[in-house]
Specification:
The complex is a heterodimer of chains A (293) and B (812). Chain A is an all-alpha fold. Chain A has 2 domains: 132 residues, no CATH class; 102 residues. The radius of gyration of chain A is 28 Å and the shape is elongated. The N terminus of chain A is likely disordered. Chain B is an alpha+beta fold and 812 residues long. The model of chain B has no long low-confidence stretch (mean pLDDT 88). The termini of chain B are far apart. Chain B has 5 domains: 186 residues, FAD/NAD(P)-binding domain; 107 residues, 3-Layer(bba) Sandwich (FAD/NAD(P)-binding domain); 149 residues, Sandwich (Jelly Rolls); 123 residues, Jelly Rolls, CATH 2.60.120.10; 157 residues, no CATH class. In chain B, helix 12 crosses helix 13, helix 17 crosses helix 18 and helix 18 crosses helix 25. In chain B, a hairpin with a 5-residue loop joins strand 39 and strand 40. Classes of the chains: A mainly alpha (293), B alpha+beta (812). Chains A and B meet through helix 1, helix 4, helix 5, helix 6 and helix 7 of A and helix 19, strand 37, helix 23, strand 43 and helix 25 of B. Bound molecules: flavin-adenine dinucleotide, protoporphyrin IX containing FE and iron/sulfur cluster (3 copies). The site of one iron/sulfur cluster has 15 residues of chain B, from helix 20 and strand 42. Chain B: GO terms for molecular function: 4 iron, 4 sulfur cluster binding; metal ion binding; oxidoreductase activity. Chain B: Keywords: 4Fe-4S, Electron transport, Iron, Iron-sulfur, Metal-binding, Transport. Chain B: Pfam families: cNMP_binding (PF00027), Fer4_11 (PF13247), Pyr_redox_2 (PF07992). Chain B: This is Fe-S-cluster-containing hydrogenase component 2. Chain A: Keywords: Membrane, Transmembrane, Transmembrane helix.
């Protein structure tokens, strides 16, 4: 028995391997299996809603509404479980790609399931709050899918085979060289260079991170100042200007890298907390339904 | 000259020291000659604080000196004590440079000119050898060093590193570390750093770009003076400031020195060892070799041999070797009862490849092997099972299932399973015991050692493997007799990476079989070489020309250093003529290949850019060394969101340490080759592992079993920089308690800071080699792939990846 079980797993891994050879991303996973399932589910809901005559009128309280509500609530719990699955490294066969694929498409199907569950009765109450939060989670999820589809290439192009550590190290190396190269400069010219050395490449907080526009522009300023300066040791200055230009490029690369990574992650800081808010609202919704209806 | 001592021991490593201690205990007059000013130089030179391991655990220590695992410092201190307590007569600064005379009257000359007379000599000089010295004037100045123990010892200096191998580059990078504020120059006699690992070279280039190191190529030292170094450069001499020279010019192996005494080796290869009798005596009577030099690199073995050899010299012939118990255990499972030496003789007389093996070699060899009884009909291994050991038939016979229901016998004395051994690939056929039989299973490493040490064994194995490989390729009722003319004329050719075996347009009708490595087939289409096919080890090429008589229609070149077997066209034709079925099968295969070529050609006309991309991707993959991979991790950067969940998954499935570095590595057309083991067909990492713990597992994975001693050889030998020397972090709180309560460092490899803070009191972290084991033993397979949310991470072999399906897809 144990061996039979192992064999089955091995086949699963093998099939997965064949599929992976073709670099199928999570959206196209297994030839859009979950898109089809989800689409079918939505269609079923829409059709049955139109065909089944619930009296007095469709709403969450009818048997039909209960059915959709239960499906929706369970689905939400399962969608939340992705956060656990992602980090729980059990040794049996599962593929996070398949999970993400199902998550995305089944998550979208909630738009239909939950909305049709309400019977289009929305108002200013805890029930609608749950629905609204869910829609927000879904919206942020859509944003996530969009950045997952669009940004990886940009991230790859920008880093150009460098790692984040190497980018940081490159900037530090330019700083070292600048420090040495700036020695012959008069104090007036050395000062902006020193400012560039003291600059913290990360200062500027989340906003700078996301826009790539940082308030501290000491390196650019130093380069501008030195390019304009005349007299003195022109050769030494030229060397410093060249280094400052290189450092600027290195800084730009690092910042773009951080910006793209932030864009790829930031939405999860909306998606996940809203999920918990949603679960809270959902619990309130369910409790109130059972106790006060 | 004083009275001759009974025994002179040369080299005070664990082997020599233990021998000297035994001699002292037995009251033999003796002397222990050591070149340096301390005992055991090899261990003295380990990294500070290195945890020295006492493998193999099952082997008992038999020595007058103590040894147990522990810090380098503690072990050296204990040995100093033991040398004194045993009243060992040590002479330091006594580098032996010449040995003359014969048994009973040897003269041993040291570098200082002293001559010591001895009746017998125990040679225990290890394998480290002597570093090559600088040759220019001034080479005796004290600021020239040949080793860097700790880069931190050097601060704010002008340092010149001479030597362009890995050791030189690593030292240069070490002392160029930012905080040390050294000004570092590295000299290279040639134009490029061809001998060093790609990773080291790229680190070095980067260090130069960052201004941390200055690289001088085609430059050598000409004159050393205090504070200054004169260089010979292509543009003339140049004097630079220099107050420390690190010379890393490789070392001379002690072999020449040993041979100068008249001692014979088992063969010309690098892997060969001195020929030894069961009492460690060499081909020169009275000179004994033990320890690493004899082929036993583990400290415990060395010490036991030190004890044994002096007992032997003292006339104790009844001594049973310390490994007797282990050998007895190996034979314990067999149905008949025989003593260990009877079993050894039994095997040596029964099995052809053991015929020329000495009794001592046979003992060592059996320790790395297994012997088992197989009742009639029992399966030894199944077709397509990966495996890399060799089997020898000591009794009975084996049956090979060549096709369902059809079997061919292999007789007693012969071998089977040799294909797995040579190319590290899957088993070609299922094998059963034809009657009640006894088979010996020899690990790949032991078999390679055997082939290096015993030329006769090598010939037999090579001939049989070639025959079998051909039988497997060209089926259709071929027999070993049909093949004889082909095999007799066969020639093994080594091909360095990138070199063409065949050029498009050449005349010629030889046929080639790839024995190890891999080839790429290219064709010039529209003025550009276009990749047609990847040929892994075990495939053949060149057959088209034999059948058609036309010139070669494509170029075939080595993707990695490879070995091919050349069969003459005439012999091949004769074979085809004798067996029409084989001719038919070969023609079919040729037609298939031709169809694929023309498919790619036609695509090239219509979807030129898709074919170019396919071809360029293939070249990139080969350039990254994936030609020798059997299973590599690739990342599609069109999909990778940089979440590093692959690394975290790897760490969480393996003692908290990740075995891959996602971000590092090269990228082409958004295809990224991260730093992670490729499970090479011929794993370089296996080459020199003292406890021999690196193996290929049942799924083709190259992994380390327990027993790593942390010597770092594999890390240095892996050309892809995928092995880390690291100690496992302490276990962390579970996932739920992190998710809900925020306890512990969370998923993935904990930060060094957390590890340090949470290491249990009194627990010494042991740094051992860690590398990808392809998630061996995890039913779900590779965790890195399973845990990738977007499907960017995949594991493939080159032939899977460069399949024609991929081109079709790209071309739409
Ligand atoms: C980094 C590293 C880590 C290792 N870790 C372990 C471990 O944890 N556990 C383990 O079991 N093994 C380990 N090994 C292997 C082990 O250290 C060696 O195989 C072992 O020391 C060999 O012992 P030996 O006595 O044969 O020779 P060596 O220890 O090499 O001693 C030879 C001695 O001979 C002297 N000598 C050489 N030539 C002459 C001459 N001409 N005249 C006089 N004297 C001479 C040398 O100075 C030296 O002192 C490690 C090896 C390395 C390189
Ligand atoms: C009510 C519905 C949903 C809930 C409760 C939900 C919940 C979650 C949770 C808990 C995670 C785990 C995040 C983490 O731990 O890193 C997650 C991830 C994610 N969700 Fe949703 N989600 C919902 C709907 C959607 C929808 C509709 C989409 C897409 C259209 C989507 C796209 C994603 C994506 C792309 C991820 C990231 C996967 C990864 O990187 O591992 N989600 N979601
Ligand atoms: S560790 Fe290195 S040499 Fe060994 S199999 Fe992996 S990639 Fe090859
Ligand atoms: S696994 Fe590597 S580090 Fe460990 S003992 Fe073998 S060669 Fe040395
Ligand atoms: S296959 Fe397993 S061990 Fe290897 S890198 Fe992936 S997760 Fe790590």
């Amino acid at each position: 028995m144990a061996t039979l079980f192992r064999r089955r797993r091995a086949t699963a891994t093998q099939t997965e391997r064949v599929r992976e050879r073709r670099h199928e991303g999570f959206l196209r996973h297994a030839n859009f299996r979950w898109a089809k399932v989800s689409g079918g589910l939505c269609l079923l809901v829409i059709l049955s809603y139109a065909l089944i005559d619930v009296s007095p009128r469709p709403n969450g309280g009818s048997w039909y509404g209960y059915t959709l509500g239960t499906i929706g609530a369970l689905l939400i719990l399962w969608l939340t479980a992705l956060g656990y699955r992602k980090r729980r490294m059990t040794s049996d066969f599962w593929s996070l790609k398949a999970w993400t694929s199902a998550h995305v498409y089944l998550g979208l199907s909630l738009i239909v399931i939950a909305t049709w569950h309400t019977g289009f009765q929305l108002g200013w109450n805890v029930h609608t709050l749950a629905w609204a939060l869910m829609m927000l989670v879904i919206l942020s999820g859509l944003y996530g899918v969009a950045v997952y589809a669009l940004l990886p290439q940009a991230l790859s192009n920008n880093r150009d085979q460098m790692t984040q550590m190497q980018m940081l190290e490159a900037i530090r190396a330019f700083d070292r060289q600048l420090h040495a190269a700036a020695q012959p400069l008069p104090p007036g010219e050395a000062a902006p260079v020193l400012a560039s050395l003291e600059q913290d490449p990360f200062a500027g907080g989340i906003r700078a991170r996301l826009t790539g526009r940082y308030p501290n522009r000491a390196t650019a300023a130093a380069r501008a100042a030195l390019t304009e300066a005349v007299g003195g040791d022109a050769e030494a200055r030229a060397k410093v200007v060249a280094l400052l230009t290189q450092k600027e490029a290195a800084l730009a690369r690092l910042r773009e890298h951080l910006r793209l990574r932030a864009l790829l992650e930031i939405w999860l800081y909306v998606h996940v907390p809203l999920t918990f808010a949603l679960i809270a609202a959902l619990s309130a919704h369910i409790i109130s339904v059972f106790f006060y209806w | 000259m004083s009275d001759p001592v009974r025994v002179a021991i040369i080299g005070s490593g664990p082997a020599g020291l233990s021998a000297a201690a035994r001699a002292a205990q037995l009251g033999l007059s003796h002397v222990l000659l050591e070149k340096t000013d301390h005992l055991s130089d090899t261990i003295f030179k380990y990294q500070k604080g290195k945890h020295v391991m006492a493998t193999p655990n099952r082997l008992d220590l038999r020595s007058d000196c103590r040894f147990d695992e522990g810090a380098r410092e503690a072990i050296l201190a204990i040995w100093d004590e033991d040398a004194a307590a045993n009243k060992v007569n040590v002479v330091y600064h006594a580098e032996v440079v010449e040995v003359t005379g014969e048994k009973g009257a040897f003269q041993i000359k040291t570098a200082k000119g002293d001559v010591i007379a001895a009746e017998a000599i125990v040679l225990a000089i290890g394998t480290q050898g002597n570093p090559n010295r600088l040759r220019c004037p001034g080479n005796d100045l004290p600021h020239i060093i040949y080793q860097v123990d700790d880069p931190e010892d050097f601060k704010d200096r002008h340092i010149t590193v001479v030597g362009s191998g890995d050791a030189g580059i690593e030292n240069a990078l070490g002392v160029a570390e930012d905080a040390l504020e050294n000004r570092v120059t590295i000299l290279n006699r040639s134009k490029d750093f061809a001998r060093a690992k790609a990773k080291n070279v790229s680190d070095l280039m980067e260090a130069e770009e960052n201004g941390a190191i200055s690289i001088r190529t085609e430059t050598q030292p000409k004159l050393v003076e205090a504070g200054w170094l004169t260089l010979e450069t292509p543009t003339g001499d140049e004097k630079i400031q220099c107050d420390l020279i690190v010379a890393r010019l490789g070392s001379v192996a002690p072999r020449a020195f040993v041979e100068s005494m008249g001692i014979e080796f088992t063969g010309p290869d690098r892997e060969a060892f001195p020929k030894l009798s069961p009492t460690f005596e060499t081909s020169v009577p009275g000179i004994y070799v033990i320890g690493a030099l004899a082929g036993y690199p583990l400290i415990k073995h060395c010490m036991n041999q030190g004890y044994d050899v002096v007992e032997f010299i003292n006339g104790n012939t009844a001594l049973t070797p310390a490994d007797e118990k282990d050998l007895a255990a190996i034979f314990a499972g067999l149905p008949e009862r025989k003593s260990v030496s009877e079993w050894l003789d039994f095997l040596r007389t029964r099995v052809r490849i053991f015929a020329d093996v000495s009794p001592l070699q046979m003992r060592e060899f059996m320790l790395d092997s297994k012997v088992a009884f197989f009742p009639e009909g029992e399966v030894v291994f199944e077709k397509d099972e990966p495996g890399s050991s060799l089997f020898a038939i000591a009794e009975g016979h084996a049956l090979v299932e060549v096709s369902p229901g059809v079997t061919v016998p292999i007789e007693q004395g012969s071998i089977f399973g040799e294909v797995g051994l040579i190319s590290g690939r899957k088993r070609g056929a299922t094998i059963r015991a034809g009657e009640d039989s006894i088979f010996v299973e020899v690990s790949r490493t032991a078999a390679l050692k055997l082939m290096a040490a015993v030329p006769g064994a090598k010939r037999v194995i090579e001939r049989i493997s070639l025959e079998r490989q051909l039988l497997q390729i060209f089926k259709g009722g071929l027999t070993a007799e049909d093949l004889a003319p082909v095999v007799d004329g066969a020639e093994v050719i080594r091909v360095p990476a990138g070199k063409a075996v065949l050029e498009e347009g050449d005349e010629g009708d030889d046929v080639f079989v790839i024995r190890s490595g891999s080839m790429v087939v290219e064709k010039n289409i529209g003025g550009k070489p276009i990749f047609l096919r990847y040929l892994p080890a075990g495939s053949y090429f060149g057959e088209m020309a034999v059948l058609s008589g036309a010139p070669r229609n494509a170029t075939v070149k080595a993707a990695v250093g490879s070995e091919v077997i050349k069969l003459t066209g005439a012999g091949f034709k004769a074979m085809l003529a004798a067996r029409p079925q084989v001719r038919e099968a070969t023609e079919t295969a040729v037609a298939e290949r031709a169809a694929m070529n023309s498919f790619i050609e036609s695509r090239k006309a219509t979807y030129s850019s898709a074919v170019d991309l396919y071809s360029d991707t293939a070249s990139f993959i080969m350039k990254e060394g994936l030609g020798e991979a059997t299973d590599a991790l690739l990342i599609d950067e069109n999909l990778c969101v940089g979440c590093d969940n692959c690394e975290k998954a790897c760490a969480d499935s393996h003692e908290g340490l990740s075995r891959l570095d996602r971000e590092a590595g090269k990228t082409f057309a958004h295809l990224h080759v991260p730093t992670s083991c490729r499970h090479c067909e011929h794993p370089h990492c296996m080459a020199d592992c003292p406890p021999n713990v690196i193996h290929r597992g049942p799924d083709g994975e190259v992994f380390m079993e327990e027993g790593c001693i942390g010597c770092g050889n594999c890390m240095r030998n892996c050309p892809y920089g995928v092995i880390r020397m690291e100690a496992a972090p302490p276990p962390k709180p579970g996932l739920l308690s992190w998710l809900l309560l925020g306890r512990g460092p969370g998923p993935g490899e904990p930060s060094p800071k957390w590890t340090k803070a949470n290491m249990p009191e009194g627990k010494k972290p042991k740094k051992i080699a860690v590398k990808c084991d392809m998630c061996k033993g995890l039913a779900g397979g590779p965790a890195c792939v399973r845990a990738c949310p977007t499907g960017a991470a995949i594991r493939v072999s080159p032939e899977e990846f460069l399949s024609i399906a991929r081109l079709e897809e790209d071309a739409g």
